[in-house]
Structures are given as structure tokens and as C-alpha cells.
Amino acid sequence: MDAARLDRVRAAMAEQGVDLVLLSVGADLPWLIGYEAMPLERLTMLVLPVDGEATLVVPRLEAPRVVPRDGVFTIRPFEEADDPIEIVAGLAGPVGTVAIGDRTWARFVVDLQHRMAAGTAWRRASTVTGPLRAVKEPAEIEALRHAAAAADRVAADLQGGEIPLVGRSEAEVSADIGRRLLAEGHGRVNFAIVAAGENAASPHHEPGGRVIRPGEVVLCDFGGTFFPGGEGAGYCSDITRCVSLGEPPTEVAEAYAVLHEAQQAAVAAATVGTPCEEVDGVARTIITEAGYGDRFIHRTGHGIGVDEHEDPYVVGGNRTPLVNGHAFSVEPGIYTPGSWGMRLEDIVVATDAGPDALNRVDHTLVVVDA
Ligand code: ZN
Ligand code: ZN
Ligand code: ZN
């Protein structure tokens, strides 16, 4: 466990009047103690009071996977016949305000709400952990840089024509990209969107049996997570590049030029002190003024770390000013239903020396013969 992170969580709890944090499935727990809860019907839960010792309640059979940290948290294994809800409620005691991990399964939340005192106030743990996780420490930025460089190498394969496209299905290319992400050091593949031609107009298109044809633009958006420990240290990559199989039609080339300009301008605007929504606004204004405003149908970006999507969100309404260490994607897109779609995505870190774009691979619409 990172004792410094635990101290920061406790300080934020005290500041927000949170007496107890309960963390289960999701990225908060690995970020805090280096252990990821199995998404099981058996409960794993860190019980973290604002004062006093933290306890990890864990099924007996999972306990061997927990690296003990003496003086930081106690491991409380439970047997198959035990009731972990009772154990957590007992450790919690009577408590005023509980913040529970956002991804905790509803069955456990409901059971805990029944078991704990009726007057207990419940809120999401992300109100405590989100702003802390969003600001990366130097080692976390290096891990993100390592992950981004690995994703860049796969994108370079794509742009270099080393990943066969024409005649293969989107699903085959997706699997190929996934294998390359693993070969470049990722521990797992989180997604590998491959969207050909008109399918790219759906930003989160599910790659399927659709065969890629000559002359099409193919959108590839992929990322994974490095294993904890070692370089990459449990952090995520996420990149989008589009390639064109042959010279793109004028309409597509013109739109891509606007997209490219918007993305680079938004990256350049991501300076310390700039509100997140202003970074979104920079990309959106360029795209809107070129006449594509109604085809840019999502926010400009999301934070990234141990989770693919976390704070800070680069979206209208988020007035949070960027601080040194905020890491997030900048990924505007233009989508024309029935015809084509395009997106350009880098991971960027706001630093006192200016925006640091971690993805460096070619940003143009590369023409490939593959
Ligand atoms: Zn996305
Ligand atoms: Zn992406
Ligand atoms: Zn993304």
C-alpha cells in the first residue's frame, strides 16, 4: 500500500466530513493498496475509517493473493459460511457518512444499507478518490508514458501497413491489434475498436464480420492495461488513429484536416490553469466553425490512469482547472452517419512546462497499402 495515498485519502475524508470509505471492485482499491478485488459474488471490501486502522475483508481463498502491508491495513479473511456484510458492518460500527466505491455491486450496497444504521448518509467514494487519482505522481506519469509508447508502436504498425486490412474482417483486425498490444507489454487488452467505412460513424462500434474494402477509411481505437509492478505499473493506454486505404475522397480529406487542427489546438490549449471545458471548447469551436459541429457528438476527452476513463473529464460544464499532473485524452471526432467517421486521440499530461502529449505517432490520415 501506498501510505502517502492513504494519508491523502484520509485528509480528503476529513475535509469532506466522510467517516468511512468502503472500496470493492474497481480501480480505487488497486490504486490505494495495490490489490484488485475479484468481481465475484463473494465480497472483497476495504473498510477505511477516517481515524483508526484499515481492514481488508476478503474471501479466505483470495487471501493468498493479498500482499500484506503491516501497520497499514489488516487482512480479515472470511470463511464460505461467514456473512461478509455482517463483518463489514461490525468493523464500520455506528457511522455518520459512508462513501462507497462507485462500482460496488448493488447487491452488496443494498445489503449494507439494510444492515447499517438507518441514519447513515451514503455517497460515492469517487467524491473522495476521483480528484486525488486524477493528479498523477511522477511515477504514474512515467507508467502512462510507457503504456502510450507501447500503443504508439502498434499504431506505427498500422500506419506502416504491417497490419493487413483489405479482405479481413474488422474482428480479425481487432484481434490482431489486441495481440500486438500484448506483445508490446500490456497485461490485458481493454478494447480494440476497428470500424471500417460507414461503421466508423458509430464512435464505439463493435468490430464484427464486416470485411474491409479498398478505398475505405478505417478507424482504430485501442488500449490496454499494463500489469502492476514493473514498467507500465498497472496503467492504461488509449489511442485512436485512422488510416486510408488509398487516397481519401476530397470530402474526407477536408474533414480530416479540420479534425487534425482541432485536436492539435486542444492539446496546445491544455495548459495548467485552463478549465477542462475550455479545452473541449477549443476543439469544438474549430470543428463547428468548419461546419461539422453537429457531427462531433461526444466530449473531447477523459482522464486516464489505472482506469481507462476517470477524472478529469474534458467536457462542457467541467470548470475544474487543469493542474500539473492531470492526465487525460484529447480525442475529437467527426461522424457522418452512413458514410464515414474519424477520430484522433492522444493522451496528454498537463505540466508546469506545458502540455505533454504522450502519443507521438503520426497524426495525419496516413494512406496505407495493406
Ligand atoms: Zn471512447
Ligand atoms: Zn480511445
Ligand atoms: Zn479515449
Detail the topology: elements first, then pairings.
Layout lengths: L2 H14 L3 E4 L4 H6 L11 E5 L4 E6 L13 E6 L5 H9 L4 E4 L5 H10 L5 E4 L1 H9 L3 H22 L10 H14 L4 E9 L20 E9 L13 E7 L4 H20 L6 H14 L11 E3 L6 E5 L12 E4 L2 E4 L3 E4 L2 E6 L2 E4 L8 E3 L2
Parallel strand pairs: 1-5, 3-4, 5-6, 9-17
Antiparallel strand pairs: 1-2, 2-3, 7-8, 8-9, 10-11, 12-15, 13-14, 15-16
Helix pairs in contact: 3-4, 8-9
This protein binds zinc ion (3 copies).
One zinc ion binds next to β8.
Give your account of this protein's structure.
It contains nine helices and 17 strands. The strands form five sheets. A six-stranded mixed β-sheet has the order 4-3-2-1-5-6. A four-stranded mixed β-sheet has the order 7-8-9-17, covered by helices on one side. The model has no long low-confidence stretch (mean pLDDT 95). Helix 3 packs across helix 4 and helix 8 runs antiparallel to helix 9. Strand 15 and strand 16 form a beta hairpin. The protein folds into two domains: 3-132, Creatinase/prolidase N-terminal domain (Creatine Amidinohydrolase, Chain A, domain 1); 135-367, Creatinase/methionine aminopeptidase superfamily (Creatine Amidinohydrolase). The protein is of the alpha/beta class and 370 residues long. The chain has helices at residues 3-16, 28-33, 84-92, 106-115, 126-134, 138-159, 170-183, 250-269, 276-289; strands at residues 20-23, 45-49, 54-59, 73-78, 97-100, 121-124, 188-196, 217-225, 239-245, 301-303, 310-314, 327-330, 333-336, 340-343, 346-351, 354-357, 366-368. The chain is elongated. 45% of the residues are buried. Residues 221, 223, 238, 240, 331, 345 line the site of one zinc ion.
